[in-house]
Amino acid sequence: MGNTFWINFYNVIVVPIFFVLLKLTALISPKIKTALQERKNLFIDLKNSINILDKQKINLWFHSSSVGEFEQAKPIIEKLIASRKFNIITSFLSPSGFKSAKRYEFSDLVTYYPFDSLKNIKQFIDLIDPPALILMRYDIWPNSVYEMTRRKKPVILVDATMKKNSPRKYPIIKKFHKHLFSHFTRIFTISEDDKNEFLSFGIEESKLKVAGDTRYDRVFQKSQSSSTQKIINEKIIEGKKIFVAGSTWKEDEEILLPVIIKLHQRDQNLLSIVVPHEPTIQNLEQIEYELRSKITSIRFSRLNQYNNEKIIIVDSIGILLILYSYAHVAFVGGGFKSNIHNILEPAVYGIPVIFGPKYSNSQEAFKFLEAQAGFSVKNKREMYRYLRKILINENFRIKTGTNAQNFVISNTGATDRIVNELIQIIKS
Prior knowledge:
This protein is an alpha/beta fold. The protein has 19 helices and 14 strands.
């Protein structure tokens, strides 16, 4: 089937259905409702913002779905801006990504991605006039790809992954994606396995390149500054072993909190720091309720009143990476709910990392376990056993932590590989 069929299929059938579903979902989802409302003046705002950009620089367009994908773009952006040749334009699907980028000093223009109709995309590209489109990870919108290709401008996919059981491989969907991927100038995959999975779509091998994952570069980059920031009084942590449990959900805490209580009964020098993924009043009070009468706790915001409490409950956001720098061992949440959060953030500091059994979303988790850099646990008994061993066996802790740090450092370098080729693609 030719180009015209799939473009028509997408715009005549998929786009209208998607538009209706979006409107219906907005009735029950505050997040989607907000995203639609904030797009109302998108083109007016975009036109005004474009006019104040440096006309001597090239407008380079990065698109990310949300905060996580944008974090992966940051090392590339920061490498590119060193040349002083580019205005960095970042577009987002979600309000969280949009708001995060507004606080990022290297985004010259932050905008929502418009609804993916051909008319909208033509208008959007007319306004920003980019020499290339750089898509992060997996958030691919067909009309952007089609329109940039029609204008003979390169489209690049970065940090690309493709699972063997991906829904994109279902019969009709696979044919559509085979057509879509054929329009890409370059696809930078995280691993050789990902490259081979993309090859199964009939993509020219010359368009595929294994570059690695920029998340390793970003985590290493952030750790360099975070490790120098002091947010806990030295007297509080002096002489203590620090356990940090980061990005925890209710399902994690059901396993975690009884283990923490038991560990503190055995170790008077232990200090635990619990960082809920969503530090709402309700969640904070629930954790305090579970601990009450069993062990003393204090909220992070009240540390100036610290009186030797055993557990610090973090009631703010944005400081987890700094807290990991204090830790002797870490637990990363999500693995008892649906999918684990970022295990690289604690690992970069050279500490053992423990997480729950649900980690199929994380390619690095499988390799992390192979490298003996941390442990996946299925229940309270396993969590207690590993944490107790790490806390009492210094040689075991140091060896596992060294494996964790080496795992991160050995996987850095993707940014340089990608940027070097990006510059050549843009020049040509």
